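Entry for the shared binder. Reason: the reviewer on the internal report wants the predicted structure included alongside the sequence.
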Amino acid sequence: MMLHDILEILKADEKLSNLLQATKADSKIYMYQGKTDNCISYRYSVVSSDGIKSQTKLELNTISTNYEKAEKIMERVKQLLLTVGDAKLNDEILNVSLNGGGVLFDEQTGQHILKAYFIFVSKERMM
């Protein structure tokens, strides 16, 4: 559910869609690996859970042959996801912070890959 909410926030944003050159058929947001230029790839995992709150990690990569474009995509993602102060992302996601990242360059494809590790703290309902 939480991953779905995060992806919906990203896919619904017109500025991000324009940067990615997304279409209705292809959001240019892919799990595990990028499939094209000007895209986002991600991995999602649970970090901790105590039955009341959980922490999850979203490893997100922005990929482009143009470094500035990859940087603009990452900046827009940060604007959409990071929370400030006591602000919540939604009713379930209490806090979002950035916990590292970096830059890679793939010489074979000529792509710049900007990495960011987002940590989400969310409410958890144990049944």
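Summary line for the report: The longest helix spans residues 67-81.
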